[in-house]
Amino acid sequence: MxxxxxxxxxxxxxxxxxxxxxxxxxxxxxxxxxxxRNFLNSMTSTPFKGIITGLxxxxxxxxxxGTTVMLVSMVxxxxxxxxxxxxxxxxxxxxxxxxxxxxxxxxxxxxISTIAIPFIALGFVLTLSKSGKTKSVGQFxxxxxxxxxxxxxxxxxxxxxxxxxxxxxxxxxxxGYKFFSIIIFTLLGAVLTVIxxxxxxxxxxxxxxxxNGWIDFEMASAMVLGENIGTTITANLAAMVGNYSAKRTxxxxxxxxxxxxxxxxxxxxxxMRLIGGMVEMVGLPNxxxxxxxxxxxTAGPLSFELQKSVLxxxxxxxxxxxxxxxxILVAFIPQIVKIVTKIIPTxxxxxxxxxxxxxQGGPLSTAELSLDQAKQEIIHFAEICHRETTLIREAIEAMxxxxxxxxxxxxxxxxxxxxxVEYEIASYLNEVSKGEISAVSVIRVREMYRIIGxxxxxxxxxxxxxxxLKRARDLGKSFSEDMLKRLNRMLDLLDxxxxxxxxxVTIPSVFLKDISNAQNAENNINAYRDxxxxxHILNIEKPDYxxxxxxxxxxxxxxxxxxxxxxxxxxxxxxEESD
Length: 579
Hints:
The protein is mainly α. The chain has two domains: 2-343, no CATH class; 370-578, Phosphate transport system protein phou homolog 2, domain 2 (Methane Monooxygenase Hydroxylase, Chain G, domain 1, Up-down Bundle). Helix content is 78%, strand content 0%. It has 24 helices and no strands. It has helices at residues 2-32, 34-42, 47-61, 64-76, 82-95, 97-107, 113-127, 132-157, 165-174, 179-196, 199-211, 217-230, 233-239, 244-266, 268-281, 296-299, 304-329, 333-343, 367-397, 404-434, 439-474, 481-506, 516-539, 547-578. Helix 14 crosses helix 18 (333-343).
């Protein structure tokens, strides 16, 4: 019964540790907001910058998984290239070692849990603030406190194996296969991290296990190596709902860590000698040789000095592994890109527009990242709408040929596409709105709803033009050369309006103050519409002018002008919401 209670306490303490990590990561991401994303986006132009960026961001938010998931989402949204993302991943792996050093320096050496309660009080006061950033900082502080309270509780609740002979015999058996035992514990470390979804939590448990004499330093080192593989699972899970670029990013993370672990296992003994020497340099016993004359499995908790030795050793190992792995593989980033691209090729028919490119899963960890992803999809939506001018040209020119049905079918298909894209983006925005979002994010969501509504209307107008053309064809009507020339001129003006719309949509609303490009395009469309309408009225009096054909012509011109209205509305939505 006692062991059962101890296990429950241990699991509860572990949950508190994990929850503290989650609060810290989310709190810092919310506090940083767009600044964090902009920093990631702007500081990744070279591998070196990417490494430094990944290191700093991960050290800040205390979660390599948080950084890599954020990175996967940004690659998914087309904000960062795959090669630049790999550099950030390398830096994130180094940044995650900060947690291990915090545990080593404070978690075992000092009873930091005694000051954690005042930290929670401070964090709670900050969460009462009306400022969103202040609330997020308070959340970070509470998470920090809960992390160390959980760690302290875990330390006190780890069972003593001497009291449980069966468990002792099982652990002794696992550690008795020499190099195969190292492989076994590497796999155990990977599995443990997959289960916990946190390499920091897995690292903390490994430190507790070795400090309490369950396994020796070499087996604990093997677990740490395995944890570097297991930590890649989170990014792969996030990428499952992403596009092929996101999947490649997650696979590159896995490939990078697996290569490092394989080489570490091949040179395991020299690596252990290096780590042992580094620990001795800080004035502590060599954690590798210290176990030669110590029956660890039967000794129970280690002495304080030996505990510090193994903790420093594991932290050194974690750091050395990630630093050396980065220094060696940074030169091979192009080769890693080629490998993951070959394993995950670009899908056939990727240019098929009915498939969303950037939104393929639920909202991301923060509203800012989620809305950035939605923004990229809206830009893609604008490009889809622009293609409709080409389809309208094809339908008009094919009106007197057998190719008309094919061209008209494309217009009908694109109307369905715009309906679907609008629905998918709107559903995604609805999910984002259900979470805690800032006042700025509320404005962005409202703006996006209006924009996608206007874009969907463009598809409706294009389909309406297809119906008009079909009706004219069924009645045996055809346009003259002059009419075709004028319709193409109208479509040219519409192309200019689309280009202005896409340019404006790409610019963040807060920076978009001048939409004269869109206004000029709209004025030109209206003026040409008026000119063509007047020509139609004058032509009615001509005996050789077919009135019904002229009506079809002017109706199509009117519908094209209506498309221009929807196009200018998109730019106006952005300016109105940013005011």
